[in-house]
Design goal:
The complex is a heterodimer of chains A (397) and B (216).
Chain A lengths: L5 H11 L4 E5 L5 E2 L5 E2 L2 E8 L9 E5 L25 E2 L4 E2 L4 E5 L14 E2 L4 E2 L9 H14 L5 E7 L1 H13 L3 E7 L7 H16 L16 H15 L2 H7 L19 H14 L4 H13 L10 H4 L6 E7 L7 H13 L3 E7 L13 H18 L10
Parallel strand pairs in A: 5-8, 5-11, 6-7, 11-12, 12-13, 13-14
Antiparallel strand pairs in A: 1-4, 2-3, 4-8, 9-10
Chain B lengths: L15 H12 L6 E5 L5 H10 L2 E6 L2 H9 L3 E4 L2 H4 L8 E7 L8 H11 E9 L4 H10 L23 H10 L2 E9 L11 H7 L2 E8 L2
Parallel strand pairs in B: 1-2, 1-4, 2-3, 4-5
Antiparallel strand pairs in B: 5-7, 6-7
The chains are: A alpha/beta (397), B alpha/beta (216).
Chain lengths: 397, 216
């Protein structure tokens, strides 16, 4: 039996008492889920930065990736590390919190305060576990729209996100095009490829193969499938990096030894690194949540909802798009972004597209890549001018 | 704040030759039309068209720097090139599709021209004329591939893989069932030639600028 660590206990507290703002939606405001269920009650945990202007025209919605959360630009309540997108969001950053009202909410199915499989099911008094309906990207977006309504905002100035966050951006425009002035889908795809699904399935099977998973009822039994979740994270983490980046960072370097010891210890630095990534992940993430959010990505195929035509999904959209890919990203490769761009062009949408040259792989969207930051700043500044928002404060550089 | 203009010392993203015909090309575009500029560089032409003529301006540009400059100007520009990205546009998506100083650098100039005339009602093309007397003289008398002010790359290091003369271009236009609506040849200083017979263009024009449309 795995002992529940102190930090894991802190993580579980985030499920029911997050260090965030929360919005509650009762039976009178159910979430209409793709699984065919009117779901309630629903809690959405969210963070905001900056101030909403009088016209309510300066809201930026940041959609987080698979294992991200609403803590975009503040220290993380469990890990204490800086927010996951402080390169992009903050005073004077491209998503300038001096200019914009930035909103980010934890996705449905998550584990940082929004209703997910670790949340208590009020009808049973136990965690939902796998009783939570399967969540889709569209469900996540519907929930975000409920939050935006709750905040009294009609049109969002810009919806932005990378990876699974980018899928939400695309879904936002497809579902609510008149409510989105500008959109930045980054390092993403309009559908999950067979390879994408395959990697996710490896992760899920790793979780489910852990004897401590207990068919999803581990929380009641006081155990955590840490080993399975860590292996899932290790496998996924490889897909976030490029071969080139791994080679230059680790190569075949040995870990704390000068010669191989001919054992199955973490001989190589890359092994040690992956083990660390796996073990630190289980401290902040719920195993069932991992099943739900990976599943949501797998079901994502935006064109399928529009007779197989991605162009139809964006038809008539007045939204200004800036699509960004990274040339070393093999998880959601440049071609996947190009397909989005071609569909937008076919629909006559206003779209810009940049393929940023970097060897950092998929994770590049989280990093301080000057060309990426410059593109984002340029696009948002121009969109803000078009939206009639006042220019940025001048700052001493 | 980011300076929208190129910082000092940065290499220009469109060739000087293209700047000369910028106004000429702009003059061939009707106000309030839909324009796609293929190889739009830093967006100078698109911006001119958007601001002076109220044009709905879109672009395609190969260089990341060029795209970034365009995006910062509020232009809708995608990173790509004429050979691979025109295919995805639907028929009649634009009034004008512009290809400035790029035709000779494409892999399949004929296909590119055909796509331009498919997705645009008009195509505007400018290119360096390989039939200019100075170039003819360099090949005929000097025995070397020509080097001029506008064509300054040596043969082993040039992006220009499909040179043509103005007469060659006119023949291709015939072959793809298009017609020339307007044609101008420019001398080495970028001034339009006074005479406008194709053989005069071919001999004395350093560049040609043509507006085409489909015959049917």
């Amino acid at each position: 039996m795995t002992l529940v660590s102190a930090s894991k206990a802190a993580g579980l507290r985030e499920v029911d008492a997050p260090h965030s703002l929360v919005a509650h939606f009762g039976a009178e405001h159910p979430l209409q889920m793709d699984a065919g269920i009117s779901f309630s009650p629903l809690t959405i945990a969210y963070q905001t930065y900056g101030a909403l202007n009088a016209d309510k025209s300066n809201a930026v919605l940041v959609c987080h990736a698979l294992t991200g959360d609403q803590h975009v630009a503040n220290d993380h309540p469990i890990t204490g590390k800086p927010g996951w997108w402080q390169t992009m969001v903050g005073p004077g950053r491209p998503i300038d919190t001096d200019r914009y009202f930035v909103i980010s909410s934890n996705v449905v199915g998550g584990c940082m305060g929004t209703t997910g499989p670790a949340s208590l099911n009020p009808t049973t008094g136990r965690p939902y576990g796998l009783d939570l309906p399967i969540v889709t990207i569209r469900d996540m977006v519907r929930a975000q729209a409920m939050l935006i309504d709750h905040l009294g905002i009609d049109t969002i100035f810009c919806v932005v996100g990378g990876s699974m966050g980018g899928m939400q951006v695309l879904q936002w425009v497809a579902s609510f095009q008149e409510r989105v002035f500008a959109a930045m889908p980054i390092a993403t795809a309009a559908k999950h490829s067979s390879q994408n699904i395959a990697f996710h399935e490896v992760g899920r099977q790793a979780v489910m193969a852990d004897p401590d998973w207990r068919r999803g009822r581990y929380l009641e039994e006081g155990v955590i499938p840490t080993k399975g979740l860590a292996v899932a994270r290790m496998a996924a983490h490889i897909t976030y990096l490029s071969d080139e980046a791994l080679q230059s960072k680790f190569g075949r370097k040995l870990q704390g030894r000068v010669a191989p010891t001919f054992s199955f210890d973490a001989e190589f630095q890359i092994e040690n690194y992956l083990r660390y990534q796996g073990m630190s992940f289980v401290d902040r993430f719920d195993a069932n949540s991992y099943l739900y959010v990976t599943r949501a990505c797998d079901y994502f195929d935006l064109a399928a909802d529009y007779d197989g035509s991605l162009a139809l999904a964006f038809k008539g959209a007045k939204t200004r798009f800036c699509v960004v890919s990274f040339n070393s990203d093999w998880l959601y490769p440049t071609a996947a972004s190009r397909a989005i761009v071609h569909a937008l062009n076919a629909g006559g949408a206003s779209v810009s597209f940049v393929d940023i040259e970097t060897d950092r792989g998929h994770d590049a969207f989280l990093l301080n890549i000057p060309e990426f930051i410059a593109t984002s700043r340029g696009f948002l500044d121009a969109a803000a001018r078009a939206r009639g928002l006042p220019p940025a404060k001048t700052r001493a550089s | 704040m980011r300076n929208e203009e190129n910082p000092a010392g940065a290499p220009p993203t469109i060739a000087d030759a293209a700047r000369v015909d910028l106004l000429l090309v702009a003059d061939m575009v009707d106000p309030n039309s839909r324009v796609l500029d293929v190889g739009c560089g830093d967006g100078a032409l698109l911006r001119l068209l958007a601001e002076e003529k109220g044009v709905d301006a879109r672009g395609i540009e190969l260089s990341q720097r060029g795209v970034n400059d365009c995006v910062a100007k509020g232009l809708s520009v995608i990173q790509g090139d004429a050979d691979t990205d025109l295919e995805a546009y639907p028929d009649d998506a634009f009034d004008y599709v512009i290809l400035s100083q790029t035709l000779q650098a494409t892999r399949h100039p004929r296909k590119v021209l055909e796509h331009m005339l498919r997705i645009g009602r008009h195509a505007i093309v400018s290119f360096p004329n390989f039939g200019h007397w100075r170039i003819r003289a360099q090949v005929a008398l000097g025995g070397h591939m020509p080097l001029t002010r506008n064509l300054s790359c040596p043969w082993y290091d040039t992006p220009n893989i499909h040179f043509c003369t103005i007469l060659d271009f006119v023949a291709l236009v015939q072959e793809i069932d298009a017609r020339i609506e307007r044609g101008v040849a420019l001398d080495r200083f970028g001034a339009p030639l006074a005479y406008s017979a194709p053989w005069i263009w071919n001999l004395f024009g350093e560049q040609g600028v043509f507006r085409l449309t489909r015959k049917r």
